[in-house]
UniProtKB/TrEMBL annotation:
The HTH hxlR-type domain, residue ranges: 10-109
Keywords per UniProt: DNA-binding, Transcription, Transcription regulation
Coiled-coil residue windows: none
Pfam families according to UniProt: HxlR
Organism: Dyadobacter subterraneus
PROSITE patterns per UniProt: HTH_HXLR
SUPFAM superfamilies registered for this protein in UniProt: Winged helix' DNA-binding domain (SSF46785)
Record field: transmembrane: none
Protein name: Helix-turn-helix transcriptional regulator
Cross-referenced InterPro entries: HTH_HxlR, WH-like_DNA-bd_sf, WH_DNA-bd_sf
Length: 142
């Protein structure tokens, strides 16, 4: 297991060292908002992450306990990546990034989710977190 060499004990530094680049945020986006959870699904995203970079980022997320890796029930040679509780705790942060980005880039963003956030942000966060926890339970992970 590769560990990240920390530059300091600052909580912001800790966060930035784990997911402070575009690829990590885009992988988290795909896991949370786009229902993607396999290597090939992540590779199919329009940003075109390379296989090597995707492997490195997924391994970091695994090592940091943000995702878990399980065998697909439909195909034993395929793995699925699911957010752990630690990863699900990032939902409010990602929703704020989504909200900020959509307010400054009105062409982007999942409109139904943004509308739910405008109506009741806390409820929208809870609903998404519950949905992600349900995915874990479907695969036998508590």
């Amino acid at each position: 297991m590769k560990t990240i060499e920390r530059r300091s004990t600052c909580p912001i530094n800790y966060s930035v060292e784990i997911f402070g680049d575009k690829w990590m945020l885009l992988i988290l986006r795909d896991l949370m908002f786009n229902g993607k959870n396999s290597f090939l699904e992540f590779r199919a995203s329009q940003e075109k992450i390379s296989s090597a970079v995707l492997t490195e980022k997924l391994n970091t997320l695994l090592n940091e306990g943000i995702v878990s890796k399980v065998t697909s029930p439909k195909n034993a040679s395929k793995f699925l990546y699911l957010l752990t509780d630690k990863g699900i705790e990032l939902v409010p942060v990602m929703m704020e990034i989504l909200n900020w980005g959509s307010s400054h880039n009105p062409d982007g963003g999942p409109k139904p989710l943004l509308d739910r956030m405008k109506q009741n942000k806390n409820k929208a966060v809870r609903e998404l977190q519950d949905k992600l926890r349900s995915q874990r339970q479907l695969h036998g992970i508590n």
